[in-house]
Amino acid sequence: MEEFMHHGCSDEVTELMEMLSKLHFKSLLSVHDAVAQTDYEPTLPPIPDDYVADEEDSVKIVSLVKTKEPFGATIKKDESTGAIVIARIMKGGAADKSGLIHEGDELMEVNGVSMEQRKPKEILSLLACSKGAVTFKIIPALYREEVSSQRKQLFVRALFDYNPEEDPAIPCKEAAVGFKRGDILQIVSLEDETWWQACHQGEGKSCPGLIPSQQLHERRVTLQRPRALFRPRTPKASDDAKVLEDVDYRAITGFHIAGLRRSFRLGRKGSVAREVARSRRWSTGLHSSIRPPTYIEVIPYHSEPTDRHKLVVLVGPSGVGVSELKKRLLISDPDCYAVTVPYTTRERKQQETDGVDYHFVPLHKFEEDILLHRFIEYGRYKGHYYGSSLDSVNRVLADSKVCLLDMHPSNIKCVYTAEYRPFVVFVKPPRIEELRLTRRRAKFICEGEDKNPVRTFTEEDFEEMIDTSESMEREYGHLFDKVLVNGDIAVAFRELKTAVLEIIEAEVQWIPTEWVRPSPTASRRSCSHLTGWI
Fold it and tell me: Where in this chain does the record put each L27 domain (predicted)?
């Protein structure tokens, strides 16, 4: 205003002088100057006078606000130098979001307390007592290229149970995620070849934790050699394998259910011989080598109103109760469940109905369908063929019913496709002590050559059942959606029925990615042994 006084009194100067003289305008300028002269940056603690830096950026001070959630980093002690270093940054945690702390950074101080000669557990106690902001003095690690965060979402179904509390190898139990077989996990990081980072599906906003990698779990299972390999059996398979037919269920229930006879199945001795032979082969029709069941990559499939009803496949060793469970499920709701009608080349008996008891077809037609791969399973008994056809499965599904199949797991590949989307249930026996209690008076039908066609289980039968079960799970476990232990038949049936109803009513079904596209090979990196979780 003093400057304007010497420039005359033109209309423009007069108007501007009047504006600058107003009280509100003067207050605005005063506040602007006060704000501009104020320093709002945080005041960092001074670096000690006796500290000599080799480089300008050799030390940095990081302050993170402490909340109820952990910072999301694991620490370890370098055995060669004794320094406390950041071993891993958990995706989605506070440390990851800040972008200021990285793997390999050395912790010099925490809230002004020196980390020299400290143990990781002492640091965890120090952090637990801290309130508000926690200040870290860090020597940064050498620059390393960050893995792109734009990685696609990856979901897997767990094929084994995992409890971190029972894992002596887990670097830090507090940083781990437990899960059950069948749980859907979202994999957040595959960078570590030993410990992946994951969270349960639907909990993407929560901080992920550590789970055993596929490589780690496979290595563990491989070291635990199954006892069947150390005690091989040499059952004698008859030249003409016998076929067993189940007792007519009409005698028990009061009505006849077609399609429940497993007449194309091999007899007990013949089946065991084939199963043991399969268990000794380290290759299958689906995979070139046996890999222990760990994880299978899955994607969500949203059911449509026009989708056909489900296919439920039951598998298990002979005598475990697969047929009984299938019968109980079928009888519980005949309007919902149905079974396939088997095919045969033998002559129709007087009391049998074509298309109800069996589909009776000529020999040349049956053999033609074999060549065209239209049978899921088939066998030969007394010169006649018996088999279960894909056409029978399609008829049941077209009738808007849930199709129940029981088969050997080696034949699942026939229906393990996006077209059928099977729900595969593996029925396994309990421990041999429970088998002795629950099956000691149970009877089953044996080979026709035996003097007593119906007999009770023997100790050899129990061991055989368990060995075959272990062999099946080891070789085909990656195909099983659910594992059901049949100790008590009533309890096992209730669990089976609940699981089947859930999969029928589910709007989203998690199906293997291989049904849609080949699974990509995940890149992995080496890891360090962890000892702390902050």
Answer: 1-43
Give the residue from 390, 388, 400, 391 showing the smallest Cα distance to 310.
400
- What's the 3-state SS for 150-198? CCCCEEEEECCCECHHHCCCCCCHHHECCECCCCEEEEEECCECCEEEE
DSSP designation for 525: B
CB atoms within 10 A of CB 238: 13
Q: How large is the average pLDDT for residues 243-266?
A: 39
Under 8 Å between Cβ of 275 and 315: no
Distance of CA 188 to the CA centre of its chain: 14
∠ CA 74-80-83, nearest 5°, is 45
pLDDT of amino acid 16: 86
For residue 122, the Cα-to-chain-centroid distance in whole angstroms is: 36
Domains in the chain and their CATH numbers? 60-145 (2.30.42.10), 154-223 (2.30.30.40), 227-515 (3.40.50.300)
Q: For residue range 409-457, what is the model confidence (pLDDT) as tens digits?
A: 989 988 998 888 899 999 999 998 888 888 776 666 554 445 555 667 7
Q: Give every CB contact of residue 415 below 8 A, 6+ residues apart in sequence.
A: 311, 313, 376, 390, 393, 405, 422
Length of the chain: 534
DSSP notation for 80-115: TT--EEEEEE-TTSHHHHHT---TTPEEEEETTEE-
* DSSP-based three-state secondary structure for 412: helix
* Phi, psi (deg, nearest 5) at residue 292: -55, 145
Whole-prediction pTM value? 0.60
Q: Are 240 and 272 in contact (CB under 8 A)?
A: no
- CB of 235 closer than 8 Å to CB of 246: no
Tracing tokens 């596929």 back to the chain, one arrives at: 214
- Dihedral, 198, 201, 205, 208 alpha carbons, nearest 10: -10
